[in-house]
């Protein structure tokens, strides 16, 4: 029987190519590769099927990198944002390690390692500086990138995420949501489990036939062992948390009814991060704010990104 989610991939890929981005795989080092969608104008297509595309130029427009969360790969997560951004910006959409076609033979599973690999891959693609937009798990990776590579990361937009998953936040969040572990929440093994994840992630109840839930589980939740290890590598002790002194502007763009990382967490984080951080909430939206309210989200997103690059041009 045809997997309906897999069958939609060619359509999704076609829409991405219409938005002028194309797939490309970066070998960061032997044993570690990261798959991307990159601006088509930066790639030379091969003349023969067995040849690999080549990078022929750096991004020609200001660069935006969209970093996905834990439940889906890059272009599935950002399907409603790519087309809204590519006319004005060079857009890069990575798949983090163990999502999509990205993998490593290393044993490291921390957000720091993901950030190091993503930064290294972007440099190989010719990206010198960028605005990074991070959702959920991708937001934690984005925070690490900004901390470690301030010369590369001009600004951050963070949705439904936190600086780091401390053990107290992890326990409190899971208890409030009624889950026993992060794996139970984020790595569902059944239709019932996936429905439970969607029920806490969305503001309004999303209805799909069970067949579609089954197909989504098959396609989007591969590499379960490695992803469980990523979740284990996510949680740190309260004693180990420090607030970096970020030099970048940070915009927290939140679903007002986010049940996973509540608006109160974002408000506290804004206070902790200080004066260069702004917070904007979107009504009638939950954790999946960029999917539930894409037009409003895109409008807010573009306004902030425009302000970042306009300020850079004014300085120059």
Overview of this protein structure:
Pfam families: Abhydrolase_1. InterPro entries: AB_hydrolase_1, AB_hydrolase_fold, Epox_hydrolase-like, Meta-cleavage_hydrolase. It is a single chain. The protein is α/β, with parallel strands linked by helices and 316 residues long. Helix content is 42%, strand content 20%. It has helices at residues 4-18, 74-77, 82-85, 111-124, 137-148, 167-177, 182-186, 191-201, 210-220, 224-232, 263-273, 289-292, 294-315, and strands at residues 21-29, 32-39, 43-44, 54-55, 63-67, 90-94, 103-104, 130-135, 153-159, 165-166, 235-236, 249-255, 277-282. It starts with a helix and ends with a helix.
Secondary structure layout:
Layout: H1 4-18, E1 21-29, E2 32-39, E3 43-44, E4 54-55, E5 63-67, H2 74-77, H3 82-85, E6 90-94, E7 103-104, H4 111-124, E8 130-135, H5 137-148, E9 153-159, E10 165-166, H6 167-177, H7 182-186, H8 191-201, H9 210-220, H10 224-232, E11 235-236, E12 249-255, H11 263-273, E13 277-282, H12 289-292, H13 294-315
Parallel strand pairs: 5-6, 5-8, 8-9, 9-12, 10-11, 12-13
Antiparallel strand pairs: 1-2, 2-6, 2-7, 3-4
Pfam families: Abhydrolase_1 (PF00561)
Organism: Stylosanthes scabra
InterPro entries: AB_hydrolase_1, AB_hydrolase_fold, Epox_hydrolase-like, Meta-cleavage_hydrolase
* Mean model confidence by pLDDT: 91
Instruction: Report helical residue fraction.
Output: 40-55%
Number of strands: 13
End-to-end Cα distance, whole Å, is 58 Å
* SSE order: HEEEEEHHEEHEHEEHHHHHEEHEHH
- Sheet with the most strands, sense and barrel status: 9 strands, mixed
Helix segment count? 13
- Enumerate the spans where pLDDT stays under 50 for 5 or more consecutive residues: none
Q: What structural category characterises the helix and strand content?
A: alpha/beta
Radius of gyration: 19 Å
Please indicate the percent range of residues in DSSP E strands (runs of 2 or more): 15-25%
